[in-house]
Amino acid sequence: MKLSQNFLIDEGVAERQISYACLKDGDVVLEIGAGNGILTRRMAKIAKVIAIELDERFISRLKKIKNVEVIHGDALKIDFREIEFNKVVSNIPYHISSPLTFKLLEKKFDLGILMYQKEFAERLAAKPGSKQYSRLSVMAYAKADVEILETVPKKAFRPVPKVDSCIVKIVPIGKRFEVNEKLFKRVVKALFAHRRKKIKNALLLEGLIDKEKAIPFGEERIEHIEPEKIVEICKVIESGDNGGENEKKNI
User: Fold this and answer.
1) pLDDT lower than 50: segments of the chain
2) CB burial class (10 A; 0-12, 13-18, 19+) of residue 89?
3) How much is the pLDDT for 92?
4) Which pTM value belongs to this model?
5) Selection from 144, 146, 142, 126 nearest residue 177 by Cα
6) How far is residue 251's CA from residue 244's CA, in Å, rounded to a whole number?
7) How much of the chain, in percent, has pLDDT values that exceed 70?
């Protein structure tokens, strides 16, 4: 299967990406979308690499690299729970960035050094009040510490993409909040569907509360709300408690 993908060709960028991972003997590194092997070859000199690649053009080449286990398949269909690794270093195929990231975060590992399209990376790492702050930012924060390490110019890839990329550090933390996860996802989705509205209005529009329901932080704008406050809102919705006291304190 021949796939449309932009391959890293800048060896200096590859070296820095690997150095951020602080690889050592005994590490087992998962690489998703190994492609031409620019990361694979270097990492395999230090640690064992499990390379996932869907494009059959690269499989035989990757299998010739010592200290590399090659899995020929679609990363979105592979059960990561059946693979033992402690680090992830990858140039993520841009079209699967979101589902793949959250699939990874269901698995326990120490550190991820991942290359993303710049716009996606900025939304992933965004803080409340920033232009990039989004549903993606909140859901990532709930499961990991995320930091942009550097911007990589588009000329570092072939074919040259339309946009720059970023190397991002991800440290999974498991579950940051004690909250009903299904409700949290639903509330976050509802809020960011109406990003510029006030919180109570967004929840009303999405049918999560009725008009009489007092909600903490109900008068705040969604684009400025911290994830911790969303957790408080979820707990009030789930418990049926009147959130009026918190709302009064917030006015």
Assistant:
1) 1, 243-251
2) buried
3) 92
4) 0.90
5) 142
6) 11
7) 94
pLDDT in tens, 90-121: 999 889 999 999 999 999 999 999 999 999 99
Determine the pLDDT at residue 213. Answer: 86
SS3 238: helix
Question: How much helix, strand and coil, in percent to the nearest 5, is found in the chain?
Answer: 40, 20, 40
Distance, CA of 91 to CA of 242 (rounded, Å): 47
Sorted by where each starts, the structural domains of the chain and their CATH numbers stand as 7-172 (3.40.50.150), 181-250 (1.10.8)
Q: Of 42, 93, 90, 100, nearest to 68 (Cα)?
A: 42
Nearest alpha carbon to residue 111 among 58, 173, 53: 173
Phi, psi dihedral angles at 25 (to 5 degrees) = -60, 130
Q: Where are the beta strands (DSSP E) in 139-181?
A: 144-152, 157-158, 165-172
Would you say 72 and 56 are in contact if contact means Cβ atoms under 8 Å apart? yes
Residue 45's region, left for phi above 0, alpha for psi from -120 to 50, else beta, is alpha
